[in-house]
Amino acid sequence: AISVPTSTLLTADEVVYLAKDSGAKVLVTDKAAWKTLREGLNGVAGLTHVLLSGEGECLPADGLEVLDLSSSLETIGTWDAPHQTKSDDPAYLVYTSGTTGYPKGVLHAHRSMIGRQPASKYWFDFSPNGDRIMHSGKFNWTYVLGTGLMDPLYQGKTVIVHEGKNDANTWPRLIQKHQATIFIGVPTIYRQILQKTEFVQKDLPSLRYCMSAGEHLSDEVLAQWHERFGIDIYEAVGMSEFSYYLCETKSRPIRPGSAGFAQPGHDIALLDPETLQPVPQGEEGVISVPDTDPGLFINYWNQPEETAKHKHDGWFITGDFARMDADGYIWFLGRKDDIIKSFGFRVSPYEVERVLKSHPDVADCASVAETIEKDKVLVVAYIILQPGST
Known about the structure:
By secondary structure, this protein is of the alpha/beta class. The chain folds into 3 domains: 67 residues, no CATH class; 249 residues, ANL, N-terminal domain (Rossmann fold); 45 residues. The chain is built from 11 helices and 22 strands. Strands 7-6-8-9-10-11-12 form a 7-stranded mixed beta sheet. Strands 13, 14, 16, 17 and 18 form a 5-stranded antiparallel beta sheet that branches. Helix 1 packs across helix 2 and helix 8 crosses helix 9. The chain is globular, with a radius of gyration of 23 Å.
């Protein structure tokens, strides 16, 4: 079977779309969510069973066999023997939201679990004495599914999972309660903890390591976190098709703004998008991965043309651009669509923002392209000043 993890934040219409597009045969959800889903799922081709967790009644639905999950699991002893899978057999299907249109499915094989282990050991800095890992995200995202569940469990570590509502205080409180040693989140979560809570280092004595991905980690948040909690945040870059593949780590000094190094087990190249030849050191190239990498996805679900667009000539072309400095640090520049072309120059908004945020009077900023007249594009920055600055 192929699992399709989704978010509890999805609307009923979004769940129906994913069920139809993936060809789902079984839906697993809780009884509270089922009340809003049952009408929309009537008539979804191929869907035959619904398994419900939690307390309460299993409300019926036309054409579907609705069962209690706990009761169903009690019959596991009568099931057929597990299917003997091969490394390239499909294992799970995740959906990634694009800039336009409906999300597309990204199909991964069983080999991806093993393919990501050298990288996970490098980024996590697991302790031989055991770790308790907590992620602030939802498991429909490969970043969370991997770092918050699959990688720690594969290494025999303890995973802390939070369900329900949360705010900035939720995560420090859970770290306290469960003595978490590793916390993982997106930069926004770290920023909220810094801005909206009073927690400091002495309040979280168990916490020894922090990790971040999903969006750019600003130099400001990195510095403020270290000042307040006495530990660094180790950043990584990844994507649904490949999970994380670049990261900072304790083994090498952090360079604020850099994505770090290619992780063990992954051969990363920066290629000229036209010739697919490696670019010279210091020059911009598209991040590319050999299509033999065991952690790489199989294909885009039911989208052969989209797959062929990105997987060809022995490479998976990510569409993300970067440059490498003389010491091997990789500096992420953004996706092809993010790069601003202005007066013959290709400008990364991330680099502009990083420089602006280094000024003490700048609280936050965003750089964008603005067309002032036909074929004339300027790089424009919008800035929020620190309180009291003019």
